[in-house]
Amino acid sequence: MIIARTLAELNEARNALGPVGFVPTMGALHEGHLALVDAAKAGGLPVAASIFVNPTQFGPKEDLARYPRDEAGDLAKLEGAGCALVWLPGVHVMYPPHGTTMIHVNGPATHWEGASRPGHFAGVATVVAKLFGQMRPESAYFGEKDWQQIQVVRRMVADLHLPVRIVPVPTRREPSGLALSSRNAYLTPEEHRAAPALHAALLHAAREIVAGKEVAATLHHARHEVAQAGLVPDYIALVHAETLEPISGLIRPARLIAAAKLGHVRLLDNIPVG
Ligand code: AMP
What we know:
This protein is α/β, with parallel strands linked by helices. The chain has helices at about 5-15, 30-40, 70-80, 90-95, 115, 120-135, 145-160, 190-195, 195-210, 215-230, and strands spanning about 1-5, 20-25, 45-50, 85, 140-145, 165-170, 230-240, 255-260, 265-274.
């Protein structure tokens, strides 16, 4: 496995490998990330991953400084998973000191995570565009766990005519239903036991909506279920799966999306409906 830390090293590796399937990450890797590597391998091209904790997608009061980092462990996992190349840019490579350009996002970035975390998706779109420019992948693999992120990236790729195929990969979960996340490491054992309530509430709500129950009442009940379990719901919403606009009845494609606080941890989840 080639490890590139400078643009020169990355270019050399890219020229040697030819077209790649790309898996961008922020490290602290778990089985969810490795599912992306597996999907990329199934795509048939050599797999390149990146590890970069992107400062521009964190708010001033968020967990950038204490975001979990484990470079040696991550590299061992990527090598074990069959990655051909890992790109490890420093902050000054990614954001040159005189750089001034950021991508402005709208549409699917407007609500939900976009409203709760101002600037988050501009940071995501900017770093993903930079990574695509550096890596020039044929395809890039993103987890459905961050459903809104996939729609923002898809919109950006279409709007900027970037020559890359975006491939969504289903969410990897614990047997309890809890979506795997690097931030789950912050949960206390007690919080970890409460956390699956978010996914359970989504499954219940999806069944009710498909059965014809009124959407507003169902979402209200889901928020109540989540709160009963000790989580603080931020949003639980039925949305158009691509535009992320809220919908009041079941039109397709529809997605139930949710975020809730548990202690210091923000949990995200989403599932298809119908
Ligand atoms: P992160 O390192 O959290 O920025 O995530 C890097 C990529 O891994 C993103 O495309 C995430 O959506 C994806 N990812 C994170 N958790 C999971 C999971 N549980 N299942 C599938 N993909 C995931």
